[in-house]
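User: Please predict the structure of the protein below. I'd like the answer in structure-token form so I can feed it into my own downstream comparison script.

Assistant: Understood. Taking the following sequence of 697 residues as input:
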Amino acid sequence: MTQVTTAPSPAVAIQQPVRRIRVAGVFTVAVIGIVVLAGVHLTQGTSSVNAGDLLRLLVGHGSDDAANVLVASRLPRLLAGVLVGVALGVAGAGLQSLARNPLASPDTLGVNAGAYLAVVVVAAFGIPLPVLPAGGIAFLGGLAAAVLVLALSAGGSSGPTRLILAGSAVAMALAGVTTLLLLLYREETIGTFAWGAGTLVQTDLNAVTQMAPVVAVGIIAALLLASKLDILALGDDTASVLGVNVRRVRILITLTTVLLSAAAVTVAGPVGFVGLVAPVLVRLIAPLVPGLMRHRVLLPLSGLSGVLIVLASDVVLRAVFGGQAGVEIPTGIMTMMVGAIVLIWLARRYRDSGPSRSPGGSGSGLRSRRTFWIVAVALVFLLVVASVAAMLAGDAFLRTGDVVNWINGRSGRAITYVLDQRFPRVVSAVLCGAALAIAGTTVQAVCRNPLAEPGILGITGGAGVGAIATLILLPSASIWLLSGMAAIAALVTFAIVYLVSWRGGLSSDRLVLIGVGVSSAASAIITLLIVATDPWNLSLAMTWLSGSTYGRTLPQVLPVAIALVVFTPMIVHARRELDLLALDDDVPRILGVRLERTRLAALVCSALLTAAAVSAIGVVGFVGLVAPHAARALVGGRHTRILPVAALLGAILVSAADSLGRTLLAPAQIPAGLLTALIGAPYFVYLLWRTRTPQPS
């Protein structure tokens, strides 16, 4: 099985004796580090209370103001950091052992996203719940997400790429529902946007004191399962021979880790990637300390490592941005950036030893030319119907006669105003959908992965960073400047992903894994930019991150049209090379294709098409995944036919999503990107389920 190696193999680790002195030394260093960070952490804040005031309070000569600040603000924040760190650290170690995959964590398995959605659902419907019942709701949401991801990825044993893709798809779908609820119930869910990135801000000790026993129970349960996890690391068959009930152990460790993750989400929201990074840090020093991979050592040490990560992130955040930033900027943004770096580093160590895969649908056989033309004509008809329906539907329903009169310049003032607003939205949806579909088709062919798309490769996130930074620094920036900065950022992001992925050649799986890491970092940067510069302008964040055609004008859509006119012919010209790239690396070389140059040119065109679409309507996910795959299923695997069909499907999908978003809850509007995510994510899950291939241990 292809895997990322960061420590001795389980068979070796379980046989190593525990060197008690060395292990005790590691624990001592970790505890000292936590104590030092805690001391620094307590001196930071928005008030003028400093280290001297706290020292005088310690010896009994402090002021009442210092005592109040310590008890009401700083101590709850510190204890929340400790609780969240230890819970996520132990949960991450348990999940990685469960999946036998060093990329497993509460984030990559969708646990945090599921728990967060469950909490937001309760808040949105105005159900007041105390801390413990809220934790129970979070537990159920996280458990459902984890079970689904593990099922889709064959328990994680089918490799890091599949696990990450399954977790990303489920998390994106859950995030779409969460964002929809935040938009529709703004008053009920006020304050949950920043909390959704993981914040340690606490008004009292209530949440910490109520969740502390839950975390303690989870840690004790994990330690009781430690010996079973040691044996399980040898493989399911070996564990069964040695008398371990594998199914029971898997269920118990899943429940335990989800319980710990849900407790952390209840206290501080989904603090990103702590559960990924903490066990990795322990595994890094495992070769130097024999016995460190024994789970009775690994689990508690991962918990301490998690505390170090959370406290260090919070200390650095407030040291760099100031005390007030500690209130406005979620700590989870910092941990997410650190986690993204670690994910990229792990992906760099990934060795692709398996055979290349072809994009899904390419194996469905050739389709006749007649079939292609029937499909193409049918899709053109559907696109016309969708476009006309988009002009008619909305908060005010019109008739086709109104549109005819508007075209001829004979409509009334009210109808003219409505259609003048709708027409640019319809055009932007159609063009951006086509651009994203063509970009996704190209990416899937180059990566030979039916589950890849520009968003997963980080290109969409990079374009979003460029556009958001431009909007914040230059609110009156022209659409050309906005599109240019988005394009530059997308190209820079793509260059980073491509160069970092190169390791004696370009592995498709490594490219996807690194793209996911870069995409996560881009999401964290976007949230940081918005919260740090304009924390109250959440509509900007929601609208942009959800993808919306609201307020579009024809000049803002023009860059997308130009990108399509310029780059689509270039991709079509390389259609035969794309057919060969979708097979493997050897066949194109034998036939004289300049592999790297062709691959690079195709991905650059995809990046620029994506950047143009993102600058026009924001982040719209899954179009570049669903449209190409559906096109292959309809017309076969030749890109001469896939490209036009995918473009039509993408245009129809985004246009229909935009129309529904303007109509379902009118006058309230649902961003098109949320509906495409809600449509695309289940389809993505279906693809994963259909292609799941459980492997023996």
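That's the full token string. The first helix runs from residue 10 to 13.
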